[in-house]
Amino acid sequence: MKLDDGYEIGEDPKGVVTFSDQSTDNPTGFPTLVVSGFSYNKLYFTFSITSTTGALHTGVYTSAMSNNSLTMLDVNANVMEANVDQGQFTLNIISVQDSTVQGTFTATLVNDVTGEIHTVSNGAFRTNFSKSN
């Protein structure tokens, strides 16, 4: 992915799909995908999207949709994020096969302290995911 003017490359992100639990943030019954990882420059990232149906499926998910977000934490502990309240995050799932999901993403992230804007482009991921209830 490209963050502002520099490229961030990483590999082997981890993914988990969780399903409905009436006592948590996902009482809808729709699956939520959470993917987390590090770039080689130690930039931590995590994104979360909730499906709009009973199965994880291909399609476009945005931060304007409930519970969808992207958060990044750099080596200086600066938190940058896009969620329903600030910034913008768009994730396109292009493939879901068995326990593998693949997609692309872009974002406009907001630094939680300074309000500084950061642009993410050309983001791509492929990960195997585990299932959790």
Question: How many strand units?
Answer: 11
What is the mean pLDDT? 87
Give helix % range. under 10%
Number of domains: 1
State the major sheet: 7 strands, mixed, barrel
Question: In short, what is this structure?
Answer:
With 133 residues, this protein is mainly beta.
Question: How is this structure best described in words?
Answer:
The model has no long low-confidence stretch (mean pLDDT 87). Strand 10 (100-111) and strand 11 (117-132) form a beta hairpin. A seven-stranded mixed β-barrel has the order 3-4-5-7-8-10-11. The protein has strands spanning 2-3, 6-7, 14-18, 32-38, 44-50, 59-62, 69-73, 79-82, 88-97, 100-111, 117-132. With 133 residues, it is mostly beta strands. The chain has one domain. The termini are far apart. The radius of gyration is 14 Å and the shape is globular. It has no helices and eleven strands.
Comma- or semicolon-separated keywords:
133 residues; mainly beta; 7-stranded mixed barrel; 11 strands; 0% helix; globular
